[in-house]
């Protein structure tokens, strides 16, 4: 299991220490909707706030992954509950390692359900 898999697995388990163990002390994590978290103290605060307000990671399934040197990538399907609302969306993560830990992690998400285009545009 590479560090990106371990990071995602720790989130699934709601394991703050497990997430932090995959990251360098000064890591940068950028979520798909804009927030940037810098360093262990801020990431721990973010996670505690998420879980303390009832946020849950209901599933986070990696569908494809690659490794090239110090770069890890994964496509995934993420399901969570936030503020009482369940959501599922597809996305991708790019992570860069510094030694054996993630120093930079950026997530991207689809903005609408995926579909096969058949010659007609959807609104």
TrEMBL record:
Annotated InterPro entries: NTF2-like_dom_sf, SnoaL-like
Record Pfam families: SnoaL_2
SUPFAM superfamilies reported in the protein's UniProt record: NTF2-like (SSF54427)
Gene3D superfamilies given in the database record: 3.10.450.50
Lineage: superkingdom: Bacteria
Record domain SnoaL-like: where: 5-104
Protein name: SnoaL-like domain-containing protein
């Amino acid at each position: 299991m590479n560090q990106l898999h371990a990071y995602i697995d720790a989130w699934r388990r709601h394991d703050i220490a497990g997430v932090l163990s995959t990251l360098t002390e000064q890591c940068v994590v950028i979520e798909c909707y804009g927030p940037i978290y810098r360093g262990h103290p801020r990431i721990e605060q973010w996670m505690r706030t998420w879980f303390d307000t009832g946020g849950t990671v209901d599933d986070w399934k990696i569908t494809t992954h690659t490794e090239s040197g110090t770069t890890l990538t994964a496509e995934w399907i993420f399901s969570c509950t936030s503020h009482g609302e369940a959501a599922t969306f597809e996305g991708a993560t790019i992570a860069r390692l510094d030694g054996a830990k993630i120093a930079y992690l950026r997530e991207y998400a689809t903005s609408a359900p995926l579909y096969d285009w058949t010659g007609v545009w959807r609104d």
